[in-house]
Amino acid sequence: MKETIRTQDDILNMLDALLREPTAFWDSFYEDRTKRIPFFVDKPDENLVAYVEQRQLPLTRVLELGSGPGRNALYLAERGSQVDAIDLAQSSIDWANERANERQLDVRFRQGNLFELSIEDGAYDFVYDSGCFHHIAPHRRHDYIRVVTEALRPGGCFALTCFVEGGQYGGSDMTDWDVYRQRSLQGGLGFTEDKLRSIFDTFDVLEIRLMQEAAPTDPVFGLSGLWTALFQKR
């Protein structure tokens, strides 16, 4: 009976099992902190800093999806936001909490699958995702959009960074159908601007642009080959 498909959730769970990197993969990914992974640096995304300093978005309460070692969550907390941050890997949550304790910042880091955790409806001014979305398989996009939409207050904003199709650091150009033919996301899906507009067509588009490259000495994180996108809930 365990592998009998009776409901829509059974179908989603079966596809998850075929495609999603297991929690153990992400735990091991963050365990070696000396790896030369670009986003292991403790710097906020350049586009996030622009949203705060130039657009001055309301950021009283923030939800981050796929927070990693916490660099963006901590940046927002330093500026007075009440931040809830979710990541699948316990090792990244532990690292983020260490960083928060060193800086005496109060961020609620939670380990778990964003599709399974309880998230308060209509509680957030801003939802942020830096590098989680391109690891979401196509069959989970509807759920992803539902999570974001339900978490936001009316008029709240949602922003993400994700791979450009065929980008320097990843971004498979495979079709959604090919994901299932090959049973792989090939390390992360790539997107075009048109595809992002189509996927998130229930939101108003405030900005879609390429991330600006940042030098190692800059106080922000920025890599070419990534999209940055800012949307608003209608």
From TrEMBL:
Q: Which superkingdom? A: Bacteria
GO BP annotations of the record are: methylation
* Record's keyword annotation contains Methyltransferase: yes
Question: What are the Methyltransferase domain coordinates in residue numbering?
Answer: 62-156
List UniProt keywords, sorted A-Z. Methyltransferase, S-adenosyl-L-methionine, Transferase
Q: Which GO terms describe its molecular function?
A: methyltransferase activity
Q: Which PANTHER family does the entry mention?
A: METHYLTRANSFERASE, UBIQUINONE BIOSYNTHESIS O-METHYLTRANSFERASE, MITOCHONDRIAL
Its recorded name reads Methyltransferase
